[in-house]
Structure formats: structure tokens, C-alpha cells
What does this fold into?
Amino acid sequence: FKISAVNVDLQTDATLQVDISDALSERDKVKFTVHTKSTLPNFKQNEFSVVRQHEEFIWLHDSFVENEEYAGFIIPPAPPRPDFDASREKLQKLGEGEGSMTKEEFTKMKQELEAEYLAIFKKTVAMHEVFLCRVAAHPVLRKDLNFHVFLEYNQDLSVRGKNKKEKLEDFFKNVVKSADGVIVAGVKDVDDFFEHEKTFLLEYHNRVKDASAKSDRMIRSHKSAADDINRIASTLYTLGTQDSTDMCKFFLKVSELFEKTRKIEARVAADEDLKLADLLKYYLRESQAAKDLLYRRGRALVDYENANKALDKARAKNKDVLQAETTQQVCCQKFEKISESAKQELIDFKTRRVAAFRKNLVELAELELKHAKVNFIPCWKDFNLFKTRNITSINVVL
Amino acid sequence: MTAWEPPDRPRSRLAYCCPEKMAEDREPPPLADAVQTDFREVEEGEDLFVSTVSTAEQLSPTSPEPASFPAEDISTNSNGPKQEILLDDDQEDLFAEATEEVSLDSPEREPILSDGPSPAITPVTPTVIITPRVDALFDRSLDEDEEAEENGDTFDMQITVSDPEKVGDGMNAYMAYKVTTKTSLSLFSRNEFSVKRRFSDFLGLHSKLASKYMHIGYIVPPAPEKSIVGMTKVKVGKEDLSSAEFVEKRRSALERYLMRTVNHPALVKDPDVIQFLENTELPRAVSTQALSGAGILRMVNKAADAVNKMTIKMNESDAWFEEKQQQFENLDIQLRKLHASVESLVCHRKELSVNTASFAKSAAMLGNSEDHTALSRALSQLAEVEEKIDQLHHEQAYADFYLFSELLGDYVRLITAVKGVFDQRMKTWSKWQDAQVMLQRKREAEAKLQYANKPDKLQQAKDEIKEWEAKVQQGERDFEQISKNIRREVERFEKQRVKDFKVVIIKYLESLVHTQQQLIKYWEAFLPEAKAIA
It folds into this structure.
């Protein structure tokens, strides 16, 4: 599955190439086959594969977040959990309602739901792959030991999902962090670049969130409309088979057209989902990661300024001066280190973002055109011919 | 960074009507044009629906190829002079609660109106919605109608219902509609005339026609349904969009009703129909109200009919009738299903339109905050495209509704009328059988009286026998007549059904094509913008 929703020039480096070559969907989990090709000396072989589950991706992501060394980077956002619940529920409901619909209807709906399931599956694979590719493309993160273990260790990493207590701890940590984030954000930055980025990211993140939600709703309506067209096509088909007048051929042909229309509409919705909705969702997560970076820098700045004040105080009182100096230097180094890499990270973020949007918007427009021009119009030309040819006299059976 | 604000353009609902009267910045989707450009070759009598369409709509300058689609919008064609256009001003989404109020079931849900004096007419600026003309449905220029030809008249009759006006205030208020007839039939005293009618007048007309003709087997087109909720809103003076849409829906339905009625060769000659169309004043049809004597009597009759239907077991000697009844039964089921699906489609398309508009705004905001200039511009363009698309969906939903959904609704009701006519035949048969039974009884009674010595009673019995023999004969004649009528009516109905469906469905499909063509235009305009992001 090489479908990458936010595929941005991440495969250029031959020294380390990562992809998900296969995936298996089991009852309540998905098993990803992570395939690595590398010329780096760190690995025992040049090409190898391991099987990983979602929790192991999360473990890797969290290990980056918790690593102080990486505080100055935009940590690639973790892939969302594979969610087949809705799809499974629909398939189940369909199975229960089997008795109440005709065989054709049932087969059609089943095919549709299976296609939906497959689409969700492909998407989740793509998202996990993008995460790995981002890590592999990052000059520092790609050297991370945990990452190498993740790629190479062919046993189960024995990573369990967080239990209730840990989830609760996380929750509180997040609350504290957001509160702190507000304070930190309030501190004016001397550096114009970062001040601008702060303002920009805040607004951008909120708007991406809004756009993402709205695009989801729009696509859902589109899918519902396609479902209705499906039902209409079925009923027209039945009418065609039952009708005693000359209409029967007409109905059957129209039914066929509606069926084709439905397929096209469903594909359009699916493409919009992939090119637009997924793009927005991804950048929602990335912009959050960028905000997190700014927060960390802001935190470091505050710590640095506090350390300065403490040092001044210590010097004034001539008490614990050495300790204060050490603290101040540590804070200073931390801050400067973060600042330096943060600047580059944010510039790269912009570049990536622009490229991703460009690629997806172009592809979206091209697909929309393809569906309308190549798929839709020709089958209607065919209908036109049918129309003028067949509807001549009306033979009513008496 | 270019800031883009969603334009506050008037949202015109115009889909299929005279462009010159439209709000400035909208191009009319050339629905009518699409129809015209495709079917240039009009062969009289042969391709029924083709000629139907082209005579109903004005022909426009065309390309000769029948199988081509117009690439450009031909925006200056009129759809025919008979069209009444109501223009739409600035309005938000019309579809708040519009269509749920009218149900398909009993057409006799009647609001309880009090019979007060009608106050002065308060002309109200009609809120404005445009619906596609359904002239094409009723063009009979090629219909082989024997009776019309016998009269030497070519059937030429056009009825429009327009200018809904609210008369009166509060709960006594009602909507008055202008009914304009244009005809060359000799049945009417003038060629063009119009009258004012209210909804209960239409119901009254239907009621009279039904009582006159249903029992001899004529399929009388059913009148549009009452809607308590819809009318109440209008009465209360709620000038909002859902009530505007309700009025428009009703207006359109009334028009279709009248056209169907006059298309019936016998009904058009009926004095009640002529009076309805011509007379300035019409006696108020009070018997259409729920709590009137007539209303209650109707309800009782209906219940009695339902019981009878269950008890009459008819010996069907005629396979045709059995087959037809089954066919109509099946058709009924499928049409109801189809109608439900189409209604659902209308609903979802409206939703899609709203959600697309909402997304467009959101994309514009995103474009505003994006600090990369080219990307920001592209996002703004995307927002514009999506806004146009939402408008497209909106118009398409309109087509879905007015073309497809309403047609299906009409036919579901028509089929109920057809089934009613079959039931009448059963009743007639039953009456005939009952008369035969009575005759037999009378003969037996007479035979008994032969042996008793009561000469006057014997004479009475003989008289009764004669009476019942006549009734039996009449019953048989009635039954044969109604059977004959029904056969003819069904044939006519099927012809009309085929025509209606073909015309409307093709028009509808063409609206779908048009939508796609517009989509192509929009996305083609956007693509270079997206590519220009550097």
C-alpha cells in the first residue's frame, strides 16, 4: 500500500527508506509490516521487515516527545488510532437487515460497505507510513536508537497501551501544560520571527481545525447523497423489470445511469476525503506539533529569564551565586539550542506545508475533472443516443 | 496577502427560467437549452417526447448535432412567453422546514376553518421562488385524442396558476391564486381569461368531479393535499422562507392538477370545470371542510367502502382486470419507495449545499491566515470554487425536488385514484349481483303466491319482478359500461404516464449533466491557480 495522503518528497534519501509494505486487519487490531532499506552501518542487514502494531508507533512517538534532546524539533505527529468501529457496525447492521431487502440490493450495499472498509484501511496504513517517513527524513530523529529498535527488532516490543492510571496522569499533564502554555504564550518574544510564528500558528491551527471539521461534514453529506442515488437506481431497476409498457427498457437504462452516477459520486467523495480532508487533518496535527515546539521554546525562555533574575538576586545577596550561575548557563544553553533548531524546523514546516497543499489541491482538481469529464459525460452521451433512438412509439399492452 | 470575503451576493434560486429577469451575476443553467440543443430533429408523431419538449420551449440557435452538449451557457433564451417568473431576493437557505408537512396518505386531512366573511384583500409582495415549468408534461400537440379530433379542435389549452396573494388576516386568512386560461377550444367563451381562486375552490371542484365520474370509471386526477401546518404558518403571517416555499409548492401542484384535469377529454367539457375556469365568482365550497355535514358523510362513506372492499369477493372473469390490478399494486409500491428515496436525496443534497457553503467560508478564513502568498491565494480560490459548487448543489436539489419528487408524489396519488376506480367497478359488480339475488327472491316469492289466493299481492309480486329484472339489466349494463370505461381510461393513463415519466426524467437527467458541466468549468478555472503555488 503505497498511498500516501501527505506524501511530500520524503523518499529522496537512499540511505534510509522506510515504508509499510503490507498490513493485516484482524479482529481488533491492525498489523503493519514495516519494511526498511538502508545503507547505514547501524543496521545488521540492508533490507529487512518487522511487524508492528499501532501501540508501538505511539510508544515511539512518545519517546521522542519525552526526550529533552529533541525539544527543539517539531515532533512528527503520531498517526491516529485505526478506527473501524463505525464501518464494522454498518456491516453488522446490514447483515441483520438482510432479510428485508432484495438480493441485488443486499449485494450492492455489501460491496459498498466493503469498499468503505477498505478505504479506511488504506488510509490508516498511509498515515502510519507518513509518520515513519517523516522520522526517517529528519536529520537527527532518524538516528534515534528507539527508532532503530522499532525498525529492526523482530520481536514484539512488549509495549502495552497506557492503562487507566497512566491515561489519567496524561490527562492531568495536559491540563497543566495548557495552563502553562497560556502563561508562556503571554510572554512577548524579543525575536520577531518567533513572535510572528506564535501568532500565526495559533490562528492557523484554529482555522485548520475548523476547515477540517467542515470538510468532513461536507464529504459525509456527499456520501449520503450517493447512497440515496444507489437506492433510486435499485428501485428504478425493479420498476424496469415490472413494467408492462414501453417504459421498461427506459427504466432499466435510467437505472443503469443512476448506478454509474452513484459510483462516480462515491468516488468523488472518496477523493475529496483523501486529498482535502486528510490533508487538513494532517496539518491540524502538524500545526499542533509546531505549537508544542514553540511552547517548549517559550518555556525555556521563561526558565532562562527566571534564571537570570535568580542570578541577579543571588549576586545582590551574594548567596549561592555559583549555583545560580550554573543554572543560568544551563538554561541559556537549552534555550539557545532550542531556538536555533526551532527556526529551521519552522521554516521547513512552511516549505512542507506549501508543497503538500500544492500537490493535493492540484490532484484534487485533476480528479474532480477526471470524474466529470472522463466518467460522467461519456456515459451520458451514450444515454443520449439511446434516447433519440429508442423512444419512438408507445406500445401499451392491452 | 489577499483577503477574501465571501460575497454577499443575492442567492438566486433561478434554475430554469427567463434569464433576463434574473439577478445580475448569475448565469442561468441552460437546462432548457440543453434540452433544445440536443433534439433539433423533430419528426412529427414519431419521437413523442422530443417534439413535446421542443414545442413547449422556444427553440434557440442551435448546433446541429443531436448528441452534443452545449459547451457554453446560452444565457439569453427565453423559456416561452407563458411563463410567470417570480424573482428571488436576498434569502438564506430556503429549506429550513419546508417539505415535511404534506403527507402522501389520506387526501382528506382538513383544517378546521371557520366560515367568517372574507375581509378586504391585502396584496402581499409574493416571496419568490422559481420552479421549472412543467409545460412540457402537458403539451398535447401530438396526442392522438379521438374526441378532440372529432370536435375538430386541436387540443390547445394552457393553464397557469400564479400570483399567490394573501387575503385577510389571522386564522381566517387564505391564499388566493390567479388562474389564467389560454385556449382556442370552442368550449370556452373567450380565448384568454383569468379568475381568482382559493385552495378550497380546487378541492370543491375535485369533489364534484369525483362524485360525478368516479363511479362510471373515469380516473379523476386527485387534488393537491391539504396541509394544516403549512397553511397555518402562512395565515399567521410568517413571512419566512419555509412558508414561501410552501406556497410555491402548492402553486405548482395546483397548476399540475388543473392541467391534468383539462387533459381528460370528458372532464374538460364538464360544466363545473368550465365554470371553475371562467366564472369570476364561485360559490364557496364549504363541503370540503372537515366538520361540515358533507365532510362527516364522506368520512362515514369511506369507512363503509373500506369494509365493503374486504367483504366483496368478486368473480373476476376478465383476466385483463386482474392483471392490471396487480400491476398497479406493484407500481404503487415501487413508486412510493422511489419517492421516499428521492425525498431523501433532496434532503441530503440540501445538506450538502449548506455544508459546502460552510466549508467555503472556512477555507477562506484559512487562506486569510496562511502566510505564504501563493498558497493563500489558492486557498481563497478554492473557497470561491466551493461556494459556487454549493450554489450548484442547491439548484440541483431544487431540480431533484420539483422535477422528480413532485412527479412521483403526483403519481402515487394518481394511482390511488386508479385503484379507487377499480374498486368502483367491484361495487358496480356487487350491485348487479345483489340485484340478481333480489330478482331471484322476488321470483321465488311470486311462485309461492301462485298457490295462495291473493290476486292483488300476486300482481304486486309480478310488478316487483319486472322492476328487478330492469334493475338487473341496468346493473349488467352499468358493469359493462364501467369496465369499458376503465379499459379506455387505463390505456389513456398508461400513455400519459409513459410520456410524463420520460419527459420529466430526461429533463432531470439533463439537469444532472448540466451540473457536471458547471463543475468542470469551475475546477478547470481552479487548476492553474493550484499549479501556480510556488
In short: The first helix of chain B runs from residue 31 to 38. The beta strands of chain B are 157-167, 174-183, 192-198.
